[in-house]
Design brief:
Layout: H1 2-10, H2 17-33, H3 37-51, H4 58-70
């Protein structure tokens, strides 16, 4: 998909932990939208790990989305 291509090309410009956590979360959401659920779950797992120390919504939302996939 176009969104996945753009994300993959933008991954080289990540500046910090916030950016890298958001990037992997967004990739997971795009993969989820494409019904590539196993790949999306891997991204969500990584988001949860990376986002533990951040005061952002990425980890919590990734956990929710992962739960919706496996339910």
């Amino acid at each position: 998909s176009e969104a996945l291509r753009i994300l993959e090309n933008s991954g080289l410009a990540l500046r910090d932990e916030y950016d890298s956590t958001e990037w992997v979360y967004r990739k997971g959401r795009v993969l989820q939208g494409l019904s590539r659920n196993e790949e999306a779950l891997r991204c969500f797992d990584e988001t949860i790990e990376k986002g533990k120390g951040l005061n952002e919504y990425f980890a919590a939302s990734a956990a929710l989305q992962a739960g919706l996939i496996v339910k």
